Amino acid sequence: MASSEEDGTNGGASEAGEEKETTGRRRRLSFLATAWLTFYNIAMTAGWLVLAIAMVRFYMEKGTHRGLYKSIQKTLKFFQTFALLEIVHCLIGIVPTSVLVTGVQVSSRIFMVWLITHSIKPIQNEESVVLFLVSWTVTEITRYSFYTFSLLDHLPYFIKWARYNFFIILYPVGVAGELLTIYAALPYVKKTGMFSIRLPNKYNVSFDYYYFLLITMASYIPLFPQLYFHMLRQRRKVLHGEVIVEKDD
Ligand SMILES: CCCCCCCCCCCCC[C@@H](O)CC(=O)SCCNC(=O)CCNC(=O)[C@H](O)C(C)(C)COP(=O)(O)OP(=O)(O)OC[C@H]1O[C@@H](n2cnc3c(N)ncnc32)[C@H](O)[C@@H]1OP(=O)(O)O
C-alpha cells in the first residue's frame, strides 16, 4: 500500500498538521516557562526584600550586628536554598545562562550558608558575615526584580542600570566577606576537626575539612574572575548593545 508521502496526495497536509501541533506545544511550553519564571522571580524578590527589611529593623532596634545572623537565618537559608532551582532552569533550557557559571555562583552561596555560617556558630557574629549578607541582599533584590520586570515587558531603566552596575562593587565586597568568614572559621575547624574523617577507619579514607577550606579559598582565585568577567560582558551587551560571541562550556 502506498503511503500518502509516496503517492503525494495528502502528505503536505499531514506535515503541515504535525508542524502546527509542534508549534502549539512549543508555545504552551514557553507560556508555562514564562509563567513559572515570573512566579519564581516575584517570590525571590519578595524573599530578599523581607530579608533586607529584617536586617535594617534589627540594626535600628539593637544598634549592633551581633545577633543579626541568628535573627534572619531561617529566611536566608530558605531563599538561598530555593535558588538551587536556578541550576535546574539552566539545565532544562528555560533561561539562556551557562550551567557552569550558575552552578559555581549558586553552589558557593549554598556552601557559605550551610557548611560555614550555619555549621560554625562562633563565626556568626563576625563583621565579614554582614559584609556578604548586605552584598547578596542588594544584589538579589536588584537581580530578581530585573528579571521580573523584563518578563513583564516593563523594565524601568534604573533597575536595568542597577543590575549591570552595582555588581562592580558588590561582587568584590561579597567575595571579600565570604573569604574573611571562611578565614575566621579556620582555627575553629582545626581545633574541633569537624566534618573530618581520620584514619584508621574501615573504609580506609581520610578527609580534612580544614584543608578543604584552604583549597576552597584558593579556588576563588581562578573562579571569581570568570564570574566577574561574565558579568562585565553581560553589562556591555545589555547597556551598550555590543554583540558578544560566548564560547560553549
Ligand atoms: C562546594 C564548594 C564550592 C565552592 C566554590 C568556590 C568558588 C567560588 C568563586 C565564586 C564566588 C562567587 C561568590 C558570590 O556568592 C559573591 C556574591 O554574589 S557577592 C554579591 C554580588 N553578586 C553579584 O552581583 C552576582 C552576579 N551574578 C549573577 O548575576 C548570576 O548569578 C550569574 C549566573 C553570574 C550571571 O547571571 P546571568 O548570566 O543569568 O546574567 P543575566 O542576568 O544577564 O541573564 C542572562 C539571560 O538569562 C535570563 N535569565 C537568567 N535568569 C533568569 C530568571 N531567573 N528569570 C528570567 N530570566 C532569566 C536573563 O533575562 C537574560 O536573558 P537575555 O539574554 O535573553 O536577556
TrEMBL record:
Q: In which pathway does it act?
A: Lipid metabolism; fatty acid biosynthesis
> Mainly localized where?
endoplasmic reticulum
Instruction: Give the catalysed reaction(s), semicolon-separated.
Output: (3R)-hydroxyhexadecanoyl-CoA = (2E)-hexadecenoyl-CoA + H2O; a very-long-chain (3R)-3-hydroxyacyl-CoA = a very-long-chain (2E)-enoyl-CoA + H2O
Q: Which GO terms describe its biological process?
A: fatty acid elongation; sphingolipid biosynthetic process; very long-chain fatty acid biosynthetic process
Q: Which GO terms describe its cellular component?
A: endoplasmic reticulum membrane
Task: Identify the enzyme class.
Answer: lyase
Q: Say which domain of life the source belongs to.
A: Eukaryota
The answer to whether keyword tRNA processing applies is: no
Region ranges (Disordered):
1-22
What residue intervals traverse the membrane? 39-60, 81-104, 164-189, 209-229
Enzyme Commission identifier(s): 4.2.1.134
Question: Is-annotated flag, keyword Endoplasmic reticulum?
Answer: yes
Similarity-based family: Belongs to the very long-chain fatty acids dehydratase HACD family.
Role of this protein = Catalyzes the third of the four reactions of the long-chain fatty acids elongation cycle. This endoplasmic reticulum-bound enzymatic process, allows the addition of two carbons to the chain of long- and very long-chain fatty acids/VLCFAs per cycle. This enzyme catalyzes the dehydration of the 3-hydroxyacyl-CoA intermediate into trans-2,3-enoyl-CoA, within each cycle of fatty acid elongation. Thereby, it participates to the production of VLCFAs of different chain lengths that are involved in multiple biological processes as precursors of membrane lipids and lipid mediators.
The name this protein goes by in its record: Very-long-chain (3R)-3-hydroxyacyl-CoA dehydratase
Which organism is the protein's source? Urocitellus parryii (Arctic ground squirrel)
